[in-house]
Design goal:
alpha/beta, Rossmann fold, binds alpha-D-glucopyranuronic acid
Amino acid sequence: MTSSELLQMGDGSAVESPEQWQGQRRPELLRLLESEVFGVTPFGRPDALRFEVREEKSGARDGLATRLRVGVLFEGTENGRQMELLVYLPNDVSGPVPVFLGLNFDGNFTTTAEADLPVPTHYVNGLFTRLSDHRATEEMRGSRASMWPYDEILKRGYGVATACYGEVEPDVANQWWHGPRVLAPPTEADGWGAIGSWAWALSRALDYLQTHPRVDSQCVAVFGFSRLGKTAMWAGAQDERFAAVISQNSGKGGASLMKRPQGEPVSHLSGPLGHWFAPSFARYSNNEAELPVDGDSIAALVAPRPLLILSATEDTWSDPEGEFLSGRSATRVYGLLGHEGLDAEARPEPGTFINSRVGYFLRVGGHNVTGEDWAVTLDWADKFLKPT
Ligand code: GCU
């Protein structure tokens, strides 16, 4: 969309005040993203939801952190649908801390080399380790640790929490009944897809974090890489309890602009990856121009909360320019709400960080998350996530 379309109601009338945005245009865009892209999330926190602290280790990571393993039991039972949340909270910090919350691809035990985390038995992605059967093995322990620099995050005074998306729902077509979608099956054209299900789980993780006295529940940022970046964007768009959103190469269906012809087309997202979305999204296959919403609509739904967009030069499939333009387009909504958005008119040189409320960083390199991404993320969070 163009930024002027963002500030125009479906009936053509202009959106001129924060009240009109919040009361009319925001709900209108949210409904369109539900009906045309991700599907409707039919319910929030289930009455039966229960948390089970399975382990609390006060001296984890050489004493740097308290580590918790928490069962988030969607149906309230130990054998029911669930996910295990791995939480690190920095020791030696007084008062509640801001927390980064994001899903992982391959199991909690791949985000750290610690030897005492269990090898999971649920579905894992495994692409990175060339796994053919989606079953985790001991060899995968710590294999994704470079994307999760826990010690650096903890030393800066932040907590961090993660769960495996594959435990919530396997990333496979027609397997939705394994996860929360079974509680409201997606039978209609606007039925929720897997991204909706994973995003829902992030909100349930936030439900848990809100109960912990050492977590500043007003300062929980949701983040994710690639398909899990799309998921983080959708979670943050829907659930305004998330204080900030961080997109790590989320690409099309996330921060990027689907209407631009560069990078991944909708035919790919709604075809081989169709289980991520509502069935109705297929209408826009080879027909992007007809989309009534785009990545900038998702970005605008995050407003006025801080949004960080991380791109990479070689990640052409995500269309990094589209990710930048999306942040720029949403900037008009931030402006209407009285905040600075993305403070750069043109895309910055690779390696130059725009540390504004809508932040933008174009790393030199490929589709990945590196220490460099986290270094800018922590600088940005110091400015926009820590309580003032
Ligand atoms: C594929 C897909 C992308 C997605 C990525 C990922 O490349 O086409 O949309 O972001 O997988 O999640 O790794």
